Amino acid sequence: MRTLIIIPTYNERENLPEMVARLEQLQLGLDMLVVDDNSPDGTGHLAKELAATRPWLQVMHRPGKAGLGTAYLDGFRLALKQGYDVVGQMDADLSHDPAYLPAMLEALWRADLVLGSRYQPGGGVKNWGPLRQIISRGGSLFSRLILGLSVRDLTGGFKLFRRRVLEGVDLDGIRSNGYCFQIEMTYRALRRGFRVAEVPIVFLDRRVGRSKLTRRVVLEAVLMVPWLRLQSIRGRL
Question: Nearest 5 degrees, angle CA 182-CA 178-CA 108?
Answer without folding.
Answer: 20
